Amino acid sequence: MMLNEVTAVPDAALPLAEFRDHLRLGTGFSDTGAEDVALSAYLRAALAAIEGRTAKALMARDFMLSLTEWRWGDMQTLPIAPVRAVAALRLIDGAGGEVIAPASGWRLVADMARPRLEARGAALPAIPTGGRVEIDFTAGFGPAWADLPVDLAQAVFLLAAQYYEFRHDGAGEGGALPFGVSALIERWRTVRMLGGRG
Fold this sequence. Notes:
alpha+beta; Hypothetical protein yqbg; five-stranded antiparallel beta sheet; three-stranded antiparallel beta sheet; 4 helices; 8 strands; 27% helix; elongated
């Protein structure tokens, strides 16, 4: 399984002004442009960290999932939520030829914890021997920062602020999230089950 981010969150969608206010930074200085580049990088790093911990795409963008086999014949979970739409399901043979699987053979179940494709009949479309399936889909709460749930938006700000505050000494690095951030994202975390259909 390989998940690729096809489109990135556009710079214009990042809440730089709100983050600047959150940090209580002044405006009108000659280096504001350079500082905005750094603030944007901290916001993107915090977004990625929160998405990694929650398996949620915070801001809407396009993804492509590539699989060489279905996990179950009649159903396939998608690795990130919330999934807003599936644009295409492409079956690609070993020689690179591709066929679009008609949507009449599958449907999206847009579950917040485990979004999935389900077969409309007995099984999902057959993946060619030696080939793969590519699933194009859009995931995220919405295209604008205001579309994020308040607790997740606050978690991103808190984590990005830590990255900013400890930018020189490396104290913000490491695997552990600050307690406040962990508490804010806890309800969004997906519990992974082994052996089941989740």
